[in-house]
Amino acid sequence: MTLLLAVIVVALVFEFINGFHDTANSVAAVVGTRVLTPSHAISLAAVMNLCGALAGTAVAATVGQGLVDAHCVTGATLICALLGAVLWNLLTWRLGLPSSSSHALIGGLVGSAVASAGNSWNVVIWSVPVAGKPWYAWGGLIYKVIIPMLSSPVLGFAVGFLWMAILYILLARCRPSSINNAFRKLQILSAGYLGFSHGSNDAQKTMGIVTLALFSATNAGDLAHLPPWLNFLHTPQFKVALWVKLTCALTMAAGTAAGGRRIIKTLGRKLSRLQPINGFAADTTSATILMATAHLGMPVSTTHVVSTSIMGVGAARSFKGLRWHLVESIIWTWVMTLPATGLLAYGLMRLFQALGGAT
């Protein structure tokens, strides 16, 4: 029981850090265009994150059941996975780099699960093809994480570029002052839309971890002698309870309210100079991709999608306007996230085992 509570606490710490670490994703454009101040943008994002977090559980099911064998997962496995992700998030936040909390968590989960299974990679669910279904309906690490991880940034850049180009063509004869005035209002709506989609994708990942911890503890018999008032913890089937949804949603909203001004500055003002129309295009592109992937149960990186959408929109305006040296450093951070968090979590789990902890 103590270990289960520790898992839940660490999961909520991760959710809080995820909130302020990824706040920049949903408000970078609206702050970069100076439509809203950082404080007002963060408040909007916190409210919309809360609403989005309560919408659906497809991503939670993928994280909790579709990546590693749940029967090989213990409370210690989950704590090491979460700690690895938290340490990486704090490091990249300190450096002001927009890394992926999603991939940090997934890398941590895979690394700690491999260590728990005695260095066996068989614990990882690589692929689950479903007969008669297209690839995006299949399960496993390859189809739910690896392919979307590679394709979503490309999609963000391409759709952002095309959407911005279409807006330029449609509004070519309009006065710049009229365009700015109209899109300053529209961008508030698009920022809210992005905040909602961010919550619907990112908050569910921690819901999946908490539900997996409850499911594992219940089936291991660890919750057999709980007092009646704690019966709500029993989870004989993998199903995200309402109290788990509310707790994770409120925690992410609180983290979002705490803000992440370092990364906001990197994305909103250093990556590309944005006007309200550019911010609107970037926000709507990002939000639509995130909503689609959340519906499909793909825990994609909000950071990747938002960053590349801003890049695509900026490129449509001027390729020379992009800060390519900054783009390069961001891409390296993306590449390093999965292996770095996997190794961190693996090392923490092996250390736990060496100190006498059970596998």
Q: How would you characterize this protein structure?
A:
There is one protein chain. This protein is mainly α and 359 residues long. The protein has one domain. Helix content is 73%, strand content 0%. It has twelve helices and no strands. It has helices at 2-32, 38-53, 58-65, 75-95, 101-116, 140-170, 176-219, 242-258, 261-270, 276-295, 302-317, 324-354. The mean pLDDT is 86.
CA(first)-CA(last) distance: 16 Å
Count of discrete domains: 1
Number of strands: 0
Mean pLDDT: 86
DSSP helical segment count = 12
Overall spatial form: elongated
Q: Which radius of gyration do the C-alpha atoms yield? A: 20 Å
* Poorly predicted segments: none
Residue share in β-strands: under 5%
The structure class reads mainly alpha
Largest sheet data: none
State the helicity in percent bands. Answer: over 70%
Write down the secondary-structure element order: HHHHHHHHHHHH
Provide the fold topology.
Blueprint: H1 2-32, H2 38-53, H3 58-65, H4 75-95, H5 101-116, H6 140-170, H7 176-219, H8 242-258, H9 261-270, H10 276-295, H11 302-317, H12 324-354
